């Protein structure tokens, strides 16, 4: 059973459309596996929509602005209506998408639909770790698919920024317990963790700073930090 | 604040039919969307446009900080409303929620284009509009192929099925159905109109 969910502020940001694509996609994937967060998001969306389009919304805006805006707007709006309604195009009732899958170490995984149009780079490997970057173009925020082979682990580390690990398939465990597909694990710089997997797993990871390794010998393993990040 | 009404004359009719409240007239919005979907009704679209466009313009402008780009959000959002009105299903959520979703998605893609220089238009993958649509529609692709009317009717929501079956198969009048189902005549009429719109689409004949 999924035990780790996005906190409310993230769901709110998701509904508002204010999160980076990397985190928004992570929440979309989680929601597809979590009926309870899905329902929260539906309710929140309805409330936000209602509030956005209520007339009282405009009371927050200074009247002068509103008059200027409306004058400009009204001129253009009639043209816009004519232009839009001149088109006979109708969206197909049901779009059919091809499923997209990815192979890691001979295992094939179907990607969540939220990721189906994101550019993927080639897979790189170090030992039991395989990583394919999702090229979202979000600067210091790096997003990847990370596969850990059976018996594999990530050396103990902390973070300077945040790190999201969303388990897509398989299981892993750390000092806090066992995780299953759908678990949405958001860590910040205070947290330490050392995920290890018995049978292998696939994760969606988003991190905005290099991992900081805390165990003596692993400080020598800087390449892995850069690799995961 | 009276100025709202004086600068937005198009909203007056809406406001008076609602009496003193500022509440949104949801049934009216749904009706307009249905008219767009079924009849490609330009008049209904103009109403929907006049209700939403100024609000979208303001919301987008506060987010993007550019009048020209905010107008682009209005144009894209309202084009989607015109093109996708038949995908709106009032049993799955309010018209405001549906338009909000389109607006949020359009804005997200536009901001990504500006900030990340990416034109991957991810929003519909992250927030699929279809999720708001009826899940019963999953089965109907098969039905189109067989062109089996009974099968297609079976994909309609239960309350629309009742009306369609009564009207076509039992040849009851709309008035008889209203008595039989103990519903207002207006409800029968709107359910029938909605159901027929869906049937036309599912039979692959979106136009008259
Ligand atoms: Zn959840």
Explain what this protein looks like in three dimensions.
The complex is a heterodimer of chains A (229) and B (208). Chain A folds into two domains: 8-85; 101-228, Jelly Rolls (Sandwich), CATH 2.60.120. Chain A has helices at 8-16, 21-33, 35-53, 63-85, 222-228, and strands at 101-104, 107-110, 124-126, 129-134, 142-148, 157-159, 163-170, 172-174, 177-179, 184-187, 201-207, 211-213. The longest helix of chain A is centred in the N-terminal third of the chain and has 23 residues, at 63-85. Mean pLDDT of chain A is 83; it is low at 56-64 and 216-222. With 229 residues, chain A is of the alpha+beta class. Chain A has five helices and twelve strands. Chain B is mainly alpha-helical. Chain B folds into two domains: 26-126, RNA polymerase sigma factor, region 2, helix turn helix motif (Rna Polymerase Sigma Factor, Chain: A), CATH 1.10.1740.10; 140-203, Arc Repressor Mutant, subunit A (Orthogonal Bundle). Chain B has helices at residues 3-7, 12-17, 26-39, 42-64, 67-84, 95-115, 123-126, 140-146, 149-153, 158-169, 174-181, 185-202. In chain B, helix 3 (26-39) packs across helix 4 and helix 4 (42-64) runs antiparallel to helix 5. Chain B is elongated. The N and C termini of chain B lie far apart (45 Å). At the A-B interface, helix 2, helix 3 and helix 4 of A face helix 1, helix 4, helix 5, helix 6 and helix 7 of B. Bound molecules: zinc ion. Residues 2, 5, 30, 34, 36-37 of chain A line the site of zinc ion.
């Amino acid at each position: 059973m999924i035990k780790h969910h996005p906190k409310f502020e993230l769901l709110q940001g998701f509904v508002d459309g204010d999160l980076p694509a990397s985190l928004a996609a992570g929440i979309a994937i989680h929601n597809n596996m979590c009926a309870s967060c899905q329902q929260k998001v539906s309710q929140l969306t309805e409330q936000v929509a209602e509030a956005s389009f209520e007339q009282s919304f405009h009371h927050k805006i200074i009247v002068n602005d509103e008059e200027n805006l409306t004058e400009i707007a009204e001129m253009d709006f009639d043209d816009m209506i004519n232009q839009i309604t001149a088109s006979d195009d109708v969206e197909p009732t049901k779009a059919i998408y091809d499923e997209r899958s990815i192979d890691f170490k001979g295992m094939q995984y179907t990607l969540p639909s939220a990721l189906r149009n994101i550019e993927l780079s080639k897979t790189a490997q170090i030992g039991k770790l395989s990583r394919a970057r999702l090229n979202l173009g979000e600067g210091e925020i790096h997003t990847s698919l990370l596969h850990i082979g059976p018996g594999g682990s990530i050396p103990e580390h902390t973070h300077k920024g945040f790190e999201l690990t969303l388990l897509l398939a398989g299981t892993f465990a750390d000092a806090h317990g066992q995780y299953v597909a759908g678990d949405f694990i958001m860590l910040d710089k205070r947290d330490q963790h050392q995920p290890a997997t018995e049978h292998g797993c696939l994760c969606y990871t988003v991190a905005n700073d290099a991992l900081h390794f805390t165990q003596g010998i692993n400080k020598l393993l800087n390449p892995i930090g850069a690799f995961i990040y | 604040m009276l100025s709202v009404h004086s600068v937005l004359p198009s909203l007056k009719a809406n406001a008076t039919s609602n009496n003193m409240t500022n509440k949104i007239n949801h049934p009216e919005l749904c009706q307009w969307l249905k008219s767009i979907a079924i009849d490609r009704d330009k008049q209904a679209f103009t109403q929907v446009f006049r209700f939403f466009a100024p609000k979208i313009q303001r919301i987008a402008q506060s987010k993007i900080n550019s009048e020209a780009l905010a107008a682009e959000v209005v144009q894209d959002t309202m084009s989607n409303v015109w093109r996708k009105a038949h995908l709106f299903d009032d049993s799955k959520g309010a018209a405001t929620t549906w338009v909000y979703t389109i607006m949020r998605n359009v804005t997200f893609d536009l901001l990504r284009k500006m900030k990340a220089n990416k034109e991957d238009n991810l929003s519909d993958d992250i927030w699929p509009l279809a999720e708001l649509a009826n899940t019963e529609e999953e089965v109907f692709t098969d039905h189109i192929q067989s062109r089996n009317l009974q099968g297609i009717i079976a994909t309609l929501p239960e309350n629309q099925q009742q009306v369609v079956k009564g009207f076509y198969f039992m040849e009851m009048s709309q008035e008889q159905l209203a008595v039989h189902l103990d519903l207002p005549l207006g409800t029968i009429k709107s359910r029938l109109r909605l159901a027929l719109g869906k049937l036309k689409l599912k039979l692959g004949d979106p136009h008259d």
